[in-house]
Inverse folding.
């Protein structure tokens, strides 16, 4: 057995989110995200792109909501650290801007071009850049929140190590990377046991932290649900503020809609964190 009673085939299937929803549905999700993101950018043209580092993918987009002193959400895309870009996730702003949040959409270098250690460092640098520059778009540097889906959920948890982060929403994240190291996903990541361990948030809970909401769709793969359940339990057992928020009716891709609409349940959770 490779992991938790699963052989290699079962373990690979347990983390294959695209196969779980099927290729046709996955393609529809991708096309709809791109369409909605194009529409969002067209309807909110006052955004700017910035570099937070020297590498080509060390960049982010800032979409101001127009409210002085408003909180900012820095969002981190998913893709198992090896695919995707920030552009198709711009649609998330359609829930954030009307809710009174500035929106920062983060991109980072993908594996295998860099190791996971470097990806984590890049995202932490992007969040630090966001805090340092928040006043430039009317944001409050003391109210910068972090969120992301899938690999972005993992990176959200890793970014919570910055004591200046005001709170986080980790969506469908990976919090123990040992099964990732043992699965097909490691072909590009090339994690060894030590790198997987030091980048597993469940093994490095902070002594103090802002509140963190851990959420997952109840139609997701059982391993994804288990990861969120166990991380949320470890987080609260440590005495850290936050809660577990499983959402019925969502798979690994549809759950982001709860952040992309003003009446979404994740918008409500974010507003509760921000006190708005």
């Amino acid at each position: 057995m490779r992991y938790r009673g699963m052989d290699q085939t079962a373990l690979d299937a347990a983390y294959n989110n695209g196969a779980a929803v099927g290729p046709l549905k996955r393609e529809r999700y991708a096309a709809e995200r791109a369409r909605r993101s194009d529409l969002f950018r067209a309807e909110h043209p006052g955004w700017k792109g910035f570099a937070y580092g020297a590498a080509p993918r060390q960049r982010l987009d800032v979409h101001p909501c127009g409210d002085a002193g408003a909180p900012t959400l820095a969002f981190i895309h998913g893709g198992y650290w090896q695919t995707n870009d920030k552009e198709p996730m711009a649609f998330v702003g359609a829930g954030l801007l009307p809710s009174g949040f500035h929106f920062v959409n983060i991109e980072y270098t993908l594996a295998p071009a860099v190791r996971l250690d470097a990806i984590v460092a890049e995202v932490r640098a992007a969040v630090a850049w966001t805090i340092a520059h928040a006043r430039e778009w009317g944001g409050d540097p003391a109210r910068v929140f972090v969120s992301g889906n899938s690999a972005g959920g993992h990176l959200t948890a890793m970014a919570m190590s910055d004591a200046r982060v005001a709170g986080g929403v980790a969506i469908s994240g990976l919090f123990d990377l040992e099964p990732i190291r043992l699965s097909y996903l490691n072909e590009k990541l090339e994690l060894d046991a030590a790198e997987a361990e030091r980048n597993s948030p469940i093994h490095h809970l902070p002594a103090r932290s802002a509140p963190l909401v851990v959420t997952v769709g109840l139609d997701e793969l059982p391993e994804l649900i288990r990861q969120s359940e166990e991380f949320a339990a470890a987080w609260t057992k440590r005495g850290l503020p936050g809660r577990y928020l499983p959402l019925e009716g969502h798979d690994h891709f549809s759950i982001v809609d709860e952040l992309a609409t003003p009446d979404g349940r994740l918008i409500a959770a974010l507003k509760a964190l921000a006190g708005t």
In short: The chain has a mean pLDDT of 98. The chain is about 40% helix and 20% strand.
